[in-house]
Amino acid sequence: MTHRRALLQIHFAAVLFGLTGVFGELIQAGAAAITLGRALFAVMALVFFARVQRRPLLDPLAPAQLFVLVIAGLLLSGHWVTFFISVKEGGIAIATLGFASFPAFITLIEGLVFRERVRMAEWIVLAMVTAGLVLVTPSFDLADQGTIGLAWGLLSGLSFALLAVTNRRAAAGMDPIRVACYQNVVVVLALLPAAAVQLPAMAAVDWLWLALLGVFCTGLSHYLFVSSLTRLNARTAGLVIALEPVYAVAFAWVLFNQQPSLRMLAGGLLIIAAIVWSGLRKSH
Fold first, then answer.
1. 178 near 57, Cβ under 8 Å?
2. Is the pTM of this model over 0.70?
3. Nearest-5° angle of CA 14, CA 213, CA 152?
4. pLDDT at 168 (0 to 100)
5. Nearest in space to 132 (alpha carbons), one of 284, 281, 19, 260
6. How confident is the model over 170-191, as pLDDT tens digits?
7. Distance in angstroms (rounded) separating the CA atoms of residues 27 and 42
8. Quick one: CA torsion of 22, 179, 177, 42, rounded to 10 degrees?
9. Cβ distance 268 to 245 under 8 Å?
């Protein structure tokens, strides 16, 4: 693994992350069914990548570790379901920018729930994300479909923030590919009763999109991200992954003609700047 190869890998991972909303738009199924199918293919891909790197997946877990993985898997289920609802309601750009609010939610959770000291710089990040979301919001009317989509995107960002805090505090030190695999198994088990009946009715092309979403945008992207961190520092990784909303908006524009307004672009730039600055500070 050279430094150049690591950079290529993490850029490709960011592109794959940005494609998630595209597949959510293409698949003609409900959000729960998309999430279930994604998790099924992701488990298969992660098992394959774990075998390639000879990472153990079936070693026994302590009850506390298993409990944490179950909670995190349920949060991951909520994150994906709300994200795909946001895509269906408001479009790819709004869903991705709504999800990108998660650094602000992490600041609030750590400050209000865990009573950690929140520094002035973190409040500035929160203010930047809030201002960006105000610009992104199509209108302050709950009858507007774009506003509803953004609200679901914010729920997706909140659930991801809770997942990030859970993994940081309770899953630290565990193999990240193993953590991802177990959490995806929990997603499958959680959504199987509600969404399994929808899968047989899906068209063959939707199964193709699901396979690409699960294998490439989940399994492969996670593998590339983890592998690249063997040569890259956290600052570089954070800067590249912050490009995910940029890729998502570009894909939506080119593939579906979902052209963002100047106001939405300005809000997106504020949110991305906040993510980059937050990542730079955390890496130090």
1. yes
2. yes
3. 80
4. 72
5. 260
6. 666 777 888 888 999 999 999 9
7. 16
8. -40
9. yes
